[in-house]
Amino acid sequence: MAVTASPERDIVATPMQRATREALYAGAIALGLFVLFIGLRTDQNISNELILVQRWLLLAVVVVLTMAGRFLYVAYGQPFLANQQIVDVATGLLPESVATRFFRLPYFIAAIATVAVLVFLAGSLDGLLGPGLAGYARFLRALAIIYALASVLFYFRTFIHAHFSALGITALALYPVIVVLVLALYGGSVAAGFQGSLKWVDNFGIQILIYVMLAWGLNIVVGLAGLLDLGYVAFYAVGAYAYALLGTQYGLSFWILLPAAGAMAAFWGVLLGFPVLRLRGDYLAIVTLAFGEIIRLVLINWREVTNGSAGISGIPKVTFFGLMTFNVSDPNYIAKVFDIATSSAYYKIFLYYLILGLCLLTAFVTIRLRRMPVGRAWEALREDEIACRSLGINTTTTKLTAFATGAMFGGFAGSFFAARQGFVSPESFIFLESAIILAIVVLGGMGSLVGIAVAAMVMIGGTEVLRELDFLKQVFGPDFTPELYRMLLFGMAMVIVMLWKPRGFVGSREPTAFLKESRAVSGSFTKEGHG
Amino acid sequence: MAGTTLLDIKGVQTYYGNIRALNGVDVTVKQGEIVALIGANGAGKSTLMMTIFGAPRARAGTITFAGIDITQLPTHEIARMRIAQSPEGRRIFPRMTVMENLQMGASLDNLQHYDEDVEKVFTLFPRLKERIAQRGGTLSGGEQQMLSIGRALMARPKLLLLDEPSLGLAPLVVKQIFDAIRELNRTQGLTVFLVEQNAFGALKLATRGYVMVNGNVTMSGTGKELLADPDVRAAYLEGGHH
């Protein structure tokens, strides 16, 4: 009797049964979570009283969607993923991966054709389809372009993986040229090309690269030295105000003030460093957070110098190393020198290359420092402070150099920011900025330059793309502003990345020390036949 | 050089807050010796080890190394006197490779004898050479202990402090590590001061030994004398051999 198992035990629940059960659980959880968030809303009535608005239908929709999602995932998604792991008995091969099934030549050709047709019809779309459908058509065009580009990337994936840094730098260096060329062809004239490139070079290019630089700077403090800094934006502010004040008051050139702003930020980095030398982890985070707020409050309240929350405007533009300027009224304005059409795009493109250069400088310095004693000491400090000290490393100077170096790059980025905007105010240096920069460092994988650059591109680029999604107004009504959801996007991206890759996009760290004759060693050990 | 006093600890008292952990300890380590400090849990052995490195700092008494008073020096300055330590819990750098860990050990020496010293460590612990590109955190306990000792040796120390090198290791690995310590002492004349709960192994290895109870040194003598002492046997040896 004891040997025969009860008949119920032998019946394993089919995916359908499990899916139904789990969908019910998910629905119950969703109902419990959202009944107060979505089901009820507080509002004001005509006599300004607070009333509860009941939104049961919306709640029902959310719950049903959750249940449907869970059901589909358990019933079809999980078995599919499990099948992907099973080798075919006849051929001995794993089934085709989702990616290879997704990127196929016929699909690619179809995507290219769609793009071609829609680009050809671009001007007459509104007339043909009406404004509502034209919005969807433009979205379809964008999707087709993304699909085609992704197919190309997928096809060359091994090559791209092997030469990622070199390809990335080349792509970044060519980006404004390509944008101008494409838009010039599209618009039919060079002037239109420059004019249209403003948005792409400024909003996407420069904006992303500023964050790449800030995140790389913070990476020295957080990623390498392991000092959790929540007030990094303070150094960004110091750099920006240093350029704004000295540039407007004394008329000094950007090229003198850039190193000065870096030095000033580094000085403040050391000042912050001293009181927090003994702190680590959460305690350090809170003090640095306070430091960031102190700097911002000083900027708001020290009106005589900083002009308070009204900010400083009329910050001078960067000159082309003193040879040419970007002010239309100057005799050596770039368009006059080269005798070309006037355009504000030249300045943006110049700024793009300037910030690209600053980014590359940051990366170069970081890579070099990691191989030098001070960089190794930073990493060792992150790993184990006590062990560091007992190896004769002065942890005081090590921490201070980390703070100073990180702050210096924040200062460079700040003075660039001031030059680009022409206007600074304390509003640009709120805690949220520190949080975003830190989020980029964490998402990218602490310590990894490539991962951080990708994270900055996804997060900042992603939030900029949200501004472009005007067609969503067709779906959610004219009041819908996609930009407002950028923080939601940030949160979702963080949750997804942390579930999928808990150490960030690039979680592994590159070693910096190698044995000189490493090949000979591994050879001799394989001959010995260990194990 | 043999016979001159290298490390001299006199009347050292250490406190954690208001709790006295060391109660006026006197310990001497002479050039070329292996000195073992044995005692039960909480006797203050590791505290003495840490006090030599200035964290926590001794509230009374003096610690002299090679004739220089190091009692008030900051930890990293003490390390620069060429005292190296394999601390309690090994404290290797987990995300750094074996090679990088060793490089960190050599930073005191400004990497002057780096290649030569790496070879020496690999001769002593061939297992480390097999694991050369592996991250420290992925090593086994015994390998981590070897790495910790190897890292300490990279600083070309005059005195090597070992805090419980046998902690949590299989007997065979403990033997390997003790053999390596003996080898270092015999061939290079390295002075070693080790703290151990494994009293039998430590006293067999040591030239001299001290027994610590509740923050006091209660007994001292050569390793053999202590091994033969009935009190020591009763307290630390018999119990551990059942």
Give a summary of the structure in a few sentences.
Chain B: It comes from Mesorhizobium wenxiniae. The complex is a heterodimer of chains A (531) and B (242). Chain A has 531 residues and is mostly helical.
In one word, what is the shape of chain B?
A: globular
Within CATH, the superfamily of the domain at 1-82 and 158-165 and 188-242 in chain B carries the name P-loop containing nucleotide triphosphate hydrolases
Structural class of chain B: alpha/beta
Annotation field: number of helices of chain A: 23
How many individual β-strands of chain A?
Answer: 4
Task: Give the helix proportion of chain A (percent range).
Answer: over 70%
List the chains of the largest interface with their residue counts.
A-B, 29 and 35 residues
Q: Approximately how much beta-strand content do the residues of chain A carry?
A: under 5%
- Count of the domains of chain A: 3
Spatial order of the strands forming the largest sheet of chain B: 6-7-8-3-9-10
Order of helices and strands of chain B: EEEHEEHEHHHHEHEHEEHH
Detailed description of the structure:
The complex is a heterodimer of chains A (531) and B (242). Chain A has helices at residues 7-10, 15-34, 56-84, 98-102, 105-120, 125-155, 157-162, 164-187, 190-224, 233-250, 254-273, 281-301, 303-306, 334-338, 345-370, 373-383, 385-390, 395-421, 431-444, 449-468, 472-476, 486-500, 518-528, and strands at 40-44, 50-54, 312-313, 423-424. Chain A is mostly helical and 531 residues long. The model of chain A is unreliable at 518-531 (pLDDT under 50). Chain B has 242 residues and is α/β, with parallel strands linked by helices. Chain B contains ten helices and ten strands. In chain B, a hairpin with a 2-residue loop joins strand 4 and strand 5. The radius of gyration of chain B is 17 Å and the shape is globular. The interface between A and B is medium-sized, with 29 and 35 residues.
